[in-house]
Design goal:
Two copies of one chain form a homodimer.
Chain A lengths: L2 E6 L3 E6 L2 E3 L5 E3 L3 E6 L3 E9 L1 H12 L18 H21 L10 E9 L5 E5 L5 E3 L6 E5 L5 H7 L6 H18 L7 E7 L9 E3 L4 H19 L18
Helix pairs in contact in A: 1-2, 3-4, 4-5
Chain lengths: 254, 254
């Protein structure tokens, strides 16, 4: 499995991805699922991947034009004029990679699937965030739903739904995401640190250095340990259920 | 879908079940998923069901012996000598109901499946809690995992893992469960109030009246509204991520 989240902020974009891959439960590895392209002052693109690792690595290699010699590469993702066209290019590449095994007699549906999150900004346009499906179509984050999750999305969702706010600072959002990732890691063995974090400040057109947060990172350990206590305090702050009182709309049944 | 949780406490047992059933997304209904049997002073049995409604209703009717006239009924679940034998009886009944359509040319696997949680106490034995699989086998809650969830288990799990404690009072546990159910309701349309709650005090051999908590219950509304704020306060109580500081085990990548 995998867990990746991309969040729109007033200040820009935050992307976080775990690095665990697994084939069954007894064959786990660490692979990067966060990829970036940029032309300083002109465009920044960030991609996160969930699904079949052969598929997602192939998509990234094709976008990078790694089929060509190093000095002949001019990735078209660095030439498309808008984020929408970038999303189309990535989606088409993904669909092509998934379709290929099917033409050679292998069952491609399901097994070779992948889902991607693409975010970034290209000069002349706003910051945009897309969720790209294996079918090659995609949706864009908007005001009502300003974030996307892929992979094992359920355990970490309630805290995002409750506490995320577009006005948050980068520092608070990384904390929020670590809580969301930690809840997921505690419940699903196929999601694990290190986590890759990529921040992008709207209008900067500058790719910040990526951060990698390891399992033994003191801050992550402090959040992981502190969150249990903070939750208990939060629960204590709410009134207990009153067994003696009759609740409106309640009925007693024997 | 469905969401049911059964929790062992030092004081006894707590069971909570939602009441929404759905066939597709445009055909929803309200049905009870919590069933009880008791012989005052001798035994209390509580059953929660998730899965195909025809299957689970059939299991409950068979356990109730509703195939017989009312005055001829002596449900064997009221005669078995131990909780283990009660779990075997329920599991055998479930397996039989699921297997039946298969013998008549219908595909029984998957479609007609159901999973059950059985808890209670029979004189001479301790309080026990079982998770019963559609295959007709079952597992028992123990010290390491003193609770079971069935149905849509993921959204509501992190809060249970973090905040649940066997020493809790019934009043606190109902609050905790309402938070867990509320997180699930907010994320999955096929889980919804009213919620049925059943408390059992160890050694009492007395079935308490069941509580039903409706969507408009003022306490549930207070918990649902207060939890968002409480979570934000909890998050604020943890230190923000320091973007300037180099984190141990972190590396920067371009």
């Amino acid at each position: 499995m995998t867990y990746c989240v991309g969040l729109m902020l007033d200040r820009g974009l935050v992307m976080m991805a775990d690095t665990r891959t697994n084939a069954g439960i007894d064959n786990i590895s660490t692979f990067r699922k966060m990829f970036t392209w940029s032309v300083p002052g002109e465009r920044v693109l960030m991609l996160m991947t969930a699904g079949n690792l052969a598929t997602t690595q192939s998509v990234v290699s094709l976008l990078d034009e790694r089929t060509k010699a190093v000095d002949e590469r001019e990735p078209s993702i660095l030439a498309v004029p808008s984020m929408f066209q970038a999303a189309r290019l990535v989606a088409e590449t993904l669909r092509g990679v998934i379709a290929q095994p099917g033409t050679q007699g292998q069952r491609a549906e399901g097994t070779f699937n992948a889902t991607l999150i693409l975010g970034g900004q290209i000069k002349g346009g706003p910051v945009r965030l897309f969720l790209i499906y294996p079918e090659g179509n995609f949706i864009e984050a908007g005001g009502d739903t300003p974030f996307f999750q892929i992979g094992e999305t359920k355990y970490g969702r309630p805290i995002l739904v409750r506490a995320y706010d577009r006005a948050m600072s980068f520092e608070s959002v990384v904390k929020l995401l670590l809580v969301s990732f930690d809840s997921t890691v505690k419940a699903n063995l196929s999601v694990a640190p290190p986590f890759d974090v990529q921040l992008y400040e709207a209008g900067s057109f500058t790719l910040e250095p990526g951060l990698r947060i390891a399992a033994n990172d003191p801050y992550y350990q402090a959040i992981s340990a502190g969150w249990g206590e903070a939750l208990k305090t939060a629960l204590d702050s709410l009134p207990d259920f009153d067994l003696g009182q009759d609740h409106q709309g309640a009925h007693k049944a024997g």
